Amino acid sequence: MKNVLEFLEKSALSVPTAIACGDEKEELSYSALLLASKKLGAFLSQHTAPRRPVALYLEKSVPTLIGFFGIVYAGGFYSALDPSQPMARTVKILETLEPSVVLTDYANRERAEEIIAELRETANTTISVELYVLNDLPGIKDRGEAQAEGVTKEEEALLSDIRDQAMDVDPLYVNFTSGSTGVPKGVTVGHRSVISFISSFVEIFGIDKEDVLGNQAPFDFDVSVKDIYSALFAGCRLQLIPRSYFSNPMELMDYLSEKKITNLTWAVSALCFVSVMNGLEYKVPEKVKRVMFSGEVMPIKHLNHWKKYLPEAMYVNLYGPTEITCNCCYYILDREFQEGEKIPLGKTFPNEKVFLLGEDGKEILPGTIAAVEDGEHLKNEESPEGEILVSGAGLAIGYYKDTVKTEEAFTQNPLNKAYYERCYRTGDLARYNEKGELVYCSRKDFQIKRMGHRIELGEIESTAMKIEEVTRALALYEADEQKLWLFYTGKADRKEIAKTLRSLLPPFMIPNKTIQIEEMPLTKNGKIDRAALLARTKSL
């Protein structure tokens, strides 16, 4: 297998009339999804080229999925852009991506036109961008007629030629994450990585054709990759949950129950929303048999709240950054956890290797013990912290058009002196507990996880520094309270800063509080004293 479209083709052959995907407006069978994707792919192949990006600027929907697969049939790779993020950020992404085609819908067409106009005016690019409304294109427009006509011999021959030259190392998608310099980083993931991961994911958790996967994650967030391709692989139903439902718990619970959702692979923040808003007290979606979470540390009180209402469900902690294709570790909860306990990261997925590297450059193994200093005394001996490194089939291709950052993050395994073994340095710190289980501790750098997204604090700081009367800026994350703080010096008004940040950054990067101070506290080495500012948040 060398192309994810083989998942779709296999399921369309084995369960042609089964529902492949649905949203709040429509649903589509596997045979219809295959046909629509092929028709669209034949059209797009005349407007783009193999291994070239196509962007989609619209909310997730059934047509969006057709757009994904149509792009891949055309030999290209896709990048989903969130319409809710500021226009300036989208322009930056498109400037990096340089797609020849952007797909949108009627609801977002006017905004997309403005973005492309801004791109042409400000970007240093010679790429000609064509904008199409997805619903007007072959395979989606007049879907009934397309179903009757089928794929023509000419279209099949064209698609066959495109497939013949494809490789499993070709890009499949690019997801843009936060970048410390203010420029989003495009994580580029290939077919081989998704094929390797999804085949294991479906088998381990027993996902089959009877399941209904309730998709929470937006399509520019890699949690959605597990939903989309697990459904295709297993031949089951993918049910898209509208973004708006995550601000209305009763509507959300009704939808989960009505659609008979069996599987939730959600960001921690989404599960916490349900428990905070008492959604399960209103209605329990009784068909749910798996609750899998990732993106942040799962608070035990919220986990136990879910377990109270769905005690028979399987609960799974998933770990892994975007750069290693969804996840590299999983832990199936097999015991009760108390407040303050850390849920282990668990086992490594097949075809992946996860290990800890100490500050001395040596591997930290389970059972390694070190005395930990606490002032003039020694605390109890415990396993030392180390950075999590990952190698194996799941590694991303790298950062799109950014060889410098790619070479910084994707390096030779420092423990392997015998042959080339590429690995990814996650920047996450972890240690082994007394049971020999790997547990997450913190970040090595100034990157955080908030609302399911990884954020470079430097991007918030550099954006704030664009404001003329801000002289210095420093962003901090208070993990216990899950609050993002921005401290700044200068004459700028706090309301003006907030307004500017909202115009340039996505909602999950907006600070909870912005504090003006006379000067930044400094350490003895002349660096900003982050610990002093973090301590200051306790009294604010």
Question: Could you list some keywords that capture this structure?
Answer:
540 residues, alpha/beta, Rossmann fold, GMP Synthetase, Chain A, domain 3, 9-stranded mixed sheet, 6-stranded antiparallel sheet, 17 helices, 32% helix, 26% strand
Topology diagram in text:
Elements (H helix, E strand, L loop, with lengths): L4 H10 L4 E4 L4 E3 H15 L8 E5 L4 H12 L3 E5 L5 H11 L3 E4 L4 H14 L7 E4 L9 H7 L3 H12 L6 E7 L7 E6 H15 L6 E4 L7 H12 L2 E4 L8 H10 L4 E5 H9 L2 H4 L7 E5 L5 H10 L4 E6 L9 E4 L14 E2 L3 E6 L5 E2 L8 E2 L2 E2 L7 E7 L5 E2 L3 H7 E3 L9 E11 L5 E6 L3 E4 L2 E4 H8 L5 E9 L4 E8 L3 H11 L8 E4 L13 H7 L4
Parallel strand pairs: 1-10, 3-4, 3-5, 5-6, 9-10, 9-11, 11-12, 12-13, 28-29
Antiparallel strand pairs: 1-2, 7-8, 8-21, 13-14, 14-15, 16-17, 16-20, 18-19, 20-23, 22-23, 23-24, 25-26, 27-28
Overview of this protein structure:
The chain is α/β, with parallel strands linked by helices and 540 residues long. Helix 1 (5-14) packs antiparallel against helix 2 and helix 1 (5-14) runs parallel beside helix 9. The relative contact order is 0.09. It has a nine-stranded mixed β-sheet. It has 17 helices and 29 strands.
Strand content: 25-35%
Q: Tell me the span between the first and last alpha carbons.
A: 56 Å
The largest sheet, given as strand count, sense and whether it forms a barrel, is:
9 strands, mixed
CATH topology of the largest domain: Rossmann fold
* CATH C-level class of the largest domain: Alpha Beta
Average pLDDT taken over every residue: 91
| CA gyration radius, whole angstroms | 24 Å
Coarse morphology: globular
Strand order of the largest sheet: 2-1-10-9-11-12-13-14-15
Instruction: Determine the structural class based on helices, strands and strand pairing.
Output: alpha/beta
Please work out how many helical segments DSSP would assign.
17
- Low-confidence runs (pLDDT<50, min 5 residues)? 374-380
Query: How many distinct domains?
Result: 3
